[in-house]
Amino acid sequence: MHVVHVASEVFPYSRSGGLGDVLGALPAQQAKLGAEVTVVSPWYASITEPVREVWRGELNELPRDLGEVRVAEAVREGVRYVFVGLSVFDRPGLYHEDDVYRFSMFGRAVLPVLARLRLLPTVLHGHDWQAALVVARARLARLRTVYTIHNLQYQGKWNMYEGRYWTALPEFAYGLDGLEYFGEINLMKGGLNFAHQVTTVSPTYAQEITTPEYGEGLDGLLTRLSIEGRLSGIINGLDQERWNPRSDPYVPSFSDLRGKQAATQALRKEFGLDDAPILATVSRLAEQKGMDLLIEALPELVKDWNVVVLGGGDPLLTAALTGWAQHPRVAFTQGMNEPLSHRIYAGAYAFAMPSRFEPCGLSQMIAMRYGTLPIVRETGGLVDTVPHDVGFHFRDATHTALKAACDAALNTPPAEWARRVDHAMSLDFSWSGPARQYLHLYQRLTGQ
Predict the structure, then answer these.
(1) Are residues 296 and 419 located together in one domain of the fold?
(2) Which residues fall in a coiled-coil region (predicted)?
(3) Residues spanned by the domain of 409
């Protein structure tokens, strides 16, 4: 079986968040289980990992003014990585305001590139809206397709006039059963309609997105897919080697609560914190992540906690946290910093995830692996991954509910806390189970 994953980012070559982490780990695990696996992603100007150019030329399937296409390869952990170089990806960074155009060009290039390299997929597996056009084109080419929603909020919408020209699909594809969405094109809707099977990254999120509250305008379509048996949830895994407190190069190694104390003291020293427990978060700064709730709760939280935040995003939230960083019990570092994130996960006492919605989430899994207990809102993958006898849950998306859950954590007796930490560090979040679930799904689709 040859599985071809298509995604806008893949760790360690390109990454802005959880999508890149998933594509860095899931294909490798599938390769270990015996599948032939290829990952196709853009060849961004910012990629610094070594890759080898294998083809260069023009593709008839693309507009001529796009110029030459460059294709590179790399092999890592038994997985072939194919990078499609287009002029629209020559800018610094991964994402820009014209991404619907950029990923439409990418979507038109993927299948011709695979044909040039003689890489015929048994199953093509597209991820999020940036790969939706590839899924639609693969279905039209009679390939078996799986489409995974990592975050339904971002759908790839544009006006119909330019969108039709960019995507260049047959006329029937722009109807209600295709890409049309209130007079616009919607790439994600096209992926949902054309895929043989749709998955999302946790069972609870798969249920939530069939409701108006979480369905982002596509709840009707998703409900139909669910009724037809074409929608399911498979929880994400975690790269157990990259996130391993016993061998992490960025923190003092430890395997239990007692050993964790060295990491906690190092984090206190790094940020000049006092002896109050450390509440941390590593997150994109967005209302989806509930970061505004955390900021609203800060006046009360700093009475009992040190608060450490690492992340970037919304300018207003960034400005608010920058102001709060003047407080002796608040430490804020803007942007993403891989070594620092490891030190925070390892050294914190508890980890806050007050998300309004959370398709799966990796941070809570990482935190538990490092013995840092999550304080989470009951939604999506947080429900599916954080046991009630490990973390602390709250229902309402309010700063008062978040503060109450933090109080419950703070008032937990030491013996009970130690038991929760031991349980957290024993949980298995490896990719082995999810990778097998996806392979079984492919087998059902193909009869192999």
Answers:
(1) yes
(2) none
(3) 257-426
